[in-house]
Amino acid sequence: MQNINVALIGNPNVGKTSVFNELTGLNQQVGNYPGITVDKKIGFCKLPNNAKANVIDLPGTYSLNASSVDENVVIELLLNKNDKLYPDVAIVVTDVENLKRNLLLFTQIKDLEIPTILVINMIDRMSRKGISLDITFLEEKLKTKIVLVSTRKKIGIENLKKAIVEYKSIPTEPCLNASSIDIEYFEKLKKTFPNQLLYKLWLVITQDVNFSNIERNEVRNSFTKSNNELKRLQQKETIKRYQFINETLKKGLTIDQSKATDLHSKLDKILTHKIFGYLIFFGILFLIFQSIFDWSSVPMDFIDSSFADLSTYAKENLPKGVFTDLISEGIIPGIGGIVIFIPQIAVLFLFVSVLEESGYMSRVVFLMDKIMRKFGLSGKSVVPLISGTACSIPAIMGTRNIENWKERLITILVTPFITCSARLPVYAILIALIIPEKRILGIFSLQGLSLMSLYLLGFFMAIFSAFILNKVLKFKSKSYFVVEMPHYKIPLPKNIGITVIEKTKSFVFGAGKIILALSIILWFLGSHGPGKDFKNAQQIVEKQVYASDIPINPSVIPDRVSEYKLEHSYIGTLGKFVEPVIKPLGYDWKIGVAVISSFAAREVFVGTLATIYSVGSHSDEETTIKHQMKAEVREDGTPTFSFATGASLLIFYAFAMQCISTLAIVRKETSSWKWPIIQLVFMSGLAYISALLTYQFLK
Amino acid sequence: MKTTADLLKIGDVALVTNFDVDKIPFKLLEMGCLPGNEIKVLQIAPFGDPIYFDVNNGSHLAIRKETARDIEVEILTTKVD
């Protein structure tokens, strides 16, 4: 028997993803739709009677009038019968407290004549809110099968599975006749395309979406109406749908106000209060950062030392040779440089998804909009700016719900200033090197405060650049801003867990590939070299040692040879080449190599230094990256990572645009090379100048 | 009493009477803000903007003052302090 294709559709905030998680468990795959960066989530589900289903979780949408790429995905799938994921049955998920609004989308899906199951979710709230439903009446009026579900209390999932198996018995007729909004026009349409669904044709005419199997030019050319007329018709259509829904629910849904508790508005009063609202918000931010600075350090130290141990173990226990060197000096430190992120990224994603799932994030948007607008941003920019502390890439994709193009563009351009988790290992290691491990007033760790001020620096630079951009950019666009204020919910641990795992996984594997590849390349470039100097390192060093007047312990010779080799390897040659440019910033050629290689991704910095230093040291005893960096000295014997150099590096990494993936996503989201190039030039220039000033001032 | 939605106070309930489709985001219509439906002001953000409405009994959303200015309403009940 063939798998049943099931499409999950629904408004945002109705618990659609919870239903998806309940149906599929961890049996899901996240991919991408070709050409666009919209998550494509497909899961697999076992049904009664040995039937099986492929469940696709479509992006949340308020209607089939698409206004973003995420929403286009929904329409494109539903209109393309040839798509191999074209649903046999659609499930429209609704929230019992928001049924009225959620049904708008339902009536549209019904008009496409796909068998549709109506899931009414969150029924555990019905008694608390005094809601009762007349299911028989609703099923008859809406011409559908209704399943009552509570993902929180695990009610109704088995019924839903049964309904999916029996999908062929669900009526496919529409529940209202939308063509009556302009009878003449639709009659003509019908005559010209007798084999097509009227509503489908209507969507082809009104939506700016790629259609594959209907020739849209043909449809459009013969049925031109001005955009204005179309808009009026769409308004008429929406009014008609709401009339039908309001009428249906008047009989089908009753609310006994006396039984309804109103926790919602009480919480709103506190959380959007002009004083408490901000206090709570900043308190939460403080909690997030505290957990990144302090609580993640234990697992991170553990990971760091474990990888150092592993590297030593590999060196001692594998047969000596090039391959072992590659593993112990290239691959293991490289992987360690990625794995060390996991605790911090996971904690960040955890907080962001809890804030979003609970409904609190919308209150922050509401609270901050007026303030953010002064800087050319929107209240909705707060969410990307917070999630940018994990990674700019999902943050920039998250700007899609900002309606105003100027506000959205500014948000995209300044988000990379926010300290993302890729900067963290760089910051962490440099701070550990140059800031003493002291506490102020016995509680605040000096290192923690330094890290916090770097976060603040990034944040202020983002706001400041936004302010400038707002003055410079001359766009005229309407200030649209609509934000849904969903009901407060206690987040479901399962949903949070899956989100955190998925996001961390995709981040680690995405970044991991680059880091791993680069560390292998670096290892190769560091252990091979052009010319005679590299080849004859042993003799040259020995000659130097014996020629000098000062007696030297012969046991240091192997270390000297390794260092000499590194200096004359390909990477050393490259580093020496750029040294004049970076010297005024206080960097030597080794740091230069790390800075260059981290143009692909910042986090490569630490891994690169780890690779360079372990290639450069002869000793079998592997130590942690931190120890190696501390031990590095300049020619005059002073430590390489002095306070001035460390501070200059910190400033450089705070401002520099060093992430190919972010540039790629900016190019995709703005559909032009202009903005990522401006971003790259501006940020890197700023980084160079600030680092230069920092070093020259402090040295 | 006829007025526009930006002038309502917290607790006011009003009937949407008319607006210009070209000035209002379509999403607002889809969320139920249509002529003939009721809106109620739940909260107003600090500094007086944006405004948080209950639309058509159950749809909770916030819009900016300048958008609310384009929505013509008729006040049904107003909260007496």
Task: Write a short abstract of this structure.
The complex is a heterodimer of chains A (699) and B (81). Chain A is an alpha/beta fold and 699 residues long.
> CATH top level of chain B?
Mainly Beta
Largest sheet data of chain A: 7 strands, mixed
* Global outline of chain B: globular
Radius of gyration of chain B: 11 Å
Number of strands of chain B: 6
Write down the CATH topology of chain B.
SH3 type barrels
Number of helices, where a helix is a run of at least 4 consecutive DSSP H or I residues of chain B:
2
Query: If classified by CATH, what would the architecture of chain B be?
Result: Roll
Q: Give the full name of the CATH homologous superfamily of chain B.
A: Ferrous iron transport protein A (FeoA)
Q: Which strand order spans the largest sheet of chain A, edge to edge or round the barrel?
A: 2-3-4-1-5-6-8
What is the helix fraction of residues of chain B, given as a range?
10-25%
Q: Mean pLDDT across all residues of chain A, rounded?
A: 84
Radius of gyration of chain A: 30 Å
* Topology pattern of chain B, helix = H, strand = E: EEHEEEHE
